[in-house]
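We now fix the convention by which a protein and its fold are recorded. Think of the row as the fold of the chain written in a discrete alphabet. Here is one such record, which you should read through line by line.
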Amino acid sequence: MSESLRLGRILYTNVWPVYHYFDPSALSFPATTRTEVPAVLNRLLLEGELDMSPVSSFAYATASNDFLLLPDLSVSADGPVRSILCFSRKPFAEAVHGRIALTNTSATSVNLLKVIAEKAYGAKPEYVTCEPDLEEMLRHADVALLIGDHAIRADWANTDYIVTDLGAEWKNWTGKSMTFAVWTVSKKAAARYPKQIGELAAAFAASKQRSLEDVTPVAIEAKEKLGGELDYWQGYFANLNYDLTSERLEGLSLYFRYVREMGLLPQEAEIGIWSDNTQIRVNE
């Protein structure tokens, strides 16, 4: 294989356990990695500029016919996620009836907030899209949505605002877990490079497993690079789910159904999971 496989990586810390022990130079084929916020990765994958990348769940849904999910990989939460946060001066149930400032960095969280506001609370808010600057957002809105490291830092510094966790809101309302990001491979790349995709899937799975057996090294890196306390980061990573079980898929399917019903998704989302058929035949 002379061409490099083009990989994406989400900028935020929530994916770090999948990457902490992942070494692209150890692969048997060349690969390049581009690290961006979810919105940029979503666009690059949809435009064919990446072969495989974690992306927001909503981005996968918009073009699910052209992509497959890598097995047993996601960023999910069965309740509070701790990095998808709404900030408001008034209680959330009241504030969502006003103006909501949305982050411009991820479609999944934006649309999750719309689903919760409109379906769970019966609100018809006005939405504005902003750069992720909490004080500036709340100058113009009643609710501000921040995600990832922006949300974490704002939560640490917060003394004035009510904080609402959208993972907890979703769980309390639906009883389901919420999957925020998935690892996605284009069907073209899967057909062209099946062996390489299998090697990638195995490498990610091994890194994830090793990280989750002891999250302390990942937490130490997060503390060094972003600040905060070690026990915060240990709890943060331990709280997230990185699997893609039937339970995660149920929650994801419900989310896809709701965004479709609201007209946010132009077509039904079909969930397809990549599998290494050659490896399956050998095992059988």
